[in-house]
């Protein structure tokens, strides 16, 4: 459906398309409008509790279009929703006169009651694990723990998959066949009924749908005595899933689940020829290799030690956590006191294990950042991957080893490409009402960053390092950048410096450069005692790879007046192209700059987000001779009404092209062979 025809206001009939899920601050569910558009509704939890899946209701909705990503590498939430068939979001709704419900709605309601019962009986830690591993509800798990699983590429252990479904079915089979002496035929019939029920109780996630449907097909094939290969079963499940919900194709969990499963099926003969340890190593390694291109494409990095941790944590989850959690859940119905006693054993073993696991994140050397690979590299990789598997299956180990080296070489080539590129780049990132610029010198001889600001609207307590985590880090990682040669901080206002320490820590930055100053309190406030800044003042010259920097201001280390007028101002020259970075310098500071007898400037970074207190008539008249382009980093609909109409008019009168983050999103200037080309992330 086209986004342009979605109304901002809607009054009429709706169908509840998903079971309402209660989060910490709101209840979320999907609804279908009369024109068959789907929108996501988020409303305060107190508004209604009787909304059910499948109900037809009357509603008044104010629909908002979700904002698209405005920076390369940034997570695109609007695209994420669109790939689920969701065209907009409603943050408050009036919903009345609901009638009817889906026949599966009682199962979802029972799931809610069961999750509530688990919370009421077990400790918060045990309940969080039980809900995550048995019912697919991860919201109660600690954020730091989830980040650690993501860091080590072990998130699949937190998602219900074939491992969980297989274990549950094995347990059910053992209880019915050996415990109650029920015939195999009857056991299979019970399983055919149980599996769809469990899929719904587990939240109907793509991985559990795949595992459940495969189990159903295998049981049916066994009952009907059909000759069907496992790969054919997987193909049928894949096609049937997409027929049922085409949007599953875009979900990473769906892609990961089928890719790993198909890879292991194709490698069945290879996997089952050794002892348990080697089988585990092969399964872990093949799974990681199969997913590598998708991991690089979506997350830009992998963890080279993750397959080793899989050897420890897959058995731990399989042999300890899952069986014990299932036993605890069943036991609390039969003997609550015994269940609580067994829970203490679970906590006694699991808590130290998870604490040790979180502590492993300090080994950042295991993180291999490659960047977003090209489709060509991905295609070549998978051709080589299939070749390695075939050669390995055929016993041609020497040739398989040679192709394996070529397999890894794909990513070395991906990493090497920027070092073969003579293009000089400056990227103005869209960090809202703040500043952050990334400079890549030709042949990536150096990577510099100017400012790492956070928006003032987000306090240190509410959203620390929001821009760093959501904008700057993904951008650098998508470029395959894991280290910086220098971070320049123009001045110590929050919107220019707040993410600086996190940048220094995360990207092993070689040098911190600031305007010379006697007052070091702001430096300690933002960077602590770990980093010793290099103080710059007028007359200093720096050389980085193929670029040179001439410092224009400040003249002294004595701060007089505002932070803005003590901004670090410098000219970056690369291959004859000059860019003037002005921080937030205002008109009094511009007078000092004019005394420096500036050389011709090609690109001007407009000071102070285009405020009328900067870029005065005298200043712009002085630099206008050669300036062709101007960067303005400014927040969309900001409270300061930046940029000023006066500043825009001055620039336009001089035929200077204006590039603004509030209009264009991130803007990248490419300079090569004496020509500048500008690329807009938001057209």
TrEMBL record:
Spans traversing the lipid bilayer: 157-180, 186-204, 216-241, 279-301, 313-334, 375-392, 399-420
Location of the protein in the cell: Cell membrane
One Pfam family, short name: DUF4131
Main location: membrane
GO terms classed as biological process: establishment of competence for transformation
Keyword Cell membrane included in the entry's annotation: yes
Gene Ontology cellular-component annotations: plasma membrane
Record domain Metallo-beta-lactamase: where: 433-634
Keyword flag Aminoacyl-tRNA synthetase: no
Membrane topology: Multi-pass membrane protein
Keywords associated with the record: Cell membrane, Membrane, Transmembrane, Transmembrane helix
Domain of life: Bacteria
Protein name: DNA internalization-related competence protein ComEC/Rec2
Species whose genome carries this gene: Allobacillus saliphilus
